[in-house]
Amino acid sequence: MPKSRLAYILLALFLGTLGVHNFFAGYTGRGVTQLLLTLISFGFLAPLVWVWAIVEICTVTKDAQGVDFVS
Fold first, then answer.
1. Binning pLDDT at 50, 70 and 90, where does residue 1 land?
2. Residues 56, 22: contact at Cβ < 8 Å?
3. What's the distance, Cα to Cα, between the start and end of the chain in Å?
């Protein structure tokens, strides 16, 4: 079932440092990496992870199964 692109973008904007948008899209490895970077660094690396999330907003157009997001 296709996932919403808007939901992916909103999750990345507001919870991107925790990797929630990647869990939503099925990219578990990316999500765990973002979550651990934020938690292990006690939030010190959160701005870097947030930039990473913004880049993903601009570049990711499909979920982990290769299904395009719907508008």
1. confident
2. yes
3. 13
